[in-house]
Amino acid sequence: MFTFQAPPYLFHNDLDISDAQVSQFTPIYYSKRFSAIRDSEQNPLHYENRVVLEAGDIVLHLVAEQGRVARVEIARVWDTLYYEDGSPIGAVLVSPEEDQLNNYYIFTKIDATGEEKSYFCNCNTLDQKQIHRHTELLSRKHTVGKIWLPEKDSTQPSQLSNTTPYPNQISDEYLHHAVVHYARQGNPACLFAAAFWFREQGKTQQAIHGLQKAAEKHFPFAWLELGFEYHEDGILGSHPDKAVTCFRQAAYGGLPLANYQLALAHIDGIGTEQSDTLALSHMQKAKDGGILAANLALALYYRNGSFNHLRPPSSPYRTLTPHEVDYNQAAQLFFQAASAPWYNAPIAAYYLAECYRTGSGVLMDKEYARELYRQAATTGNLLHEEIQTAAYYNGDVERLTQIAEDEPFAAYLVGRMYWFGEFAPKNYEIAKRYLKIAANSGHSCAEEASQLLQNSRDHWRI
Question: Is this prediction's pTM over 0.90?
């Protein structure tokens, strides 16, 4: 994760820093100085079946990373939090055995009177949409609860007859028992969880069956996974049109990663019509939904004026009329993608460095660009060409040399460094060796490497 102290953007009014009022994560303790309330009759937090959440609820938690379920866990609702006006903040989830509350952070909100109020939550605070998609009530200490009636804007008491007994000890065994219990009753979230476990165990047929059953009950994550099964040439085979159908159902269910996959399909017309307009719309929805890959894809789109960076070299759509570039928008998106903790943050940092080196969308700052190149080079995967270029600007000749035999672009960069004396002493023999590797490859750098070798006599005065 990069912690940038960025020079100012050219157009300050265009900045949208959504968490500008959020403090750093610090342990705090609940006190009356915070404005959060724990109950609301006007818009209570509720599960998909409209049962109102209560503190102490034991829930199935589908933990997603960048839009895709990565883990199936059990959690306890510590409490529900609301703003002073009764609108929901979210449900705070903790591990079942956790009693103390730490790692909360404070944020502020301006109320209707213009007064700034302080609230708090933790990193596992789920909003209403996330509660619907990511949780399922498994057990409650008592069987009396409330049902939310949106048509009446009110709640009414209800007897809960379909929860498992509250466990004396919460364990993985209990979680599996409860999930199987509800899956047999056709609960879509538990069908999905069971399918997830089957896939982890290598029981692919059972996993697919569970996903299909959950999808029949309109569970968005099941549609998403079926889309990947058709898309990735899994047990269901490669069927781009079926993959698009599944991703579209998942997108209808509100999953932004599905929008990202639909954008990729529209970019090259795979399984659906080719349309940069639809691709841009879906990519924007994915970005708004927190998919960082969409931030990076959009940044490159605004930088280059096309989606060609996502198209294969043989794509017939690479010749489409380019869109007008927007360097300012690109720089902001690169900044967002580089500042977040995800696997391609170093690549985004490289492109942000390019912005500062050339003054594209930001005030030119070559010193800051060098710092970004350094961070990208030292934290990124050197097999990516963006990271190789960052390593070049960082003078990492030794690291590039280590991979140059197998990576033609790295070989070209090493050859350049010894050819021109960039971050390394001039050495014709070493330069020639690595430039030949690049020149004899099918890489796009081969032509320039060959040109350097052809001009060697004049350059080196041999």
Answer: no
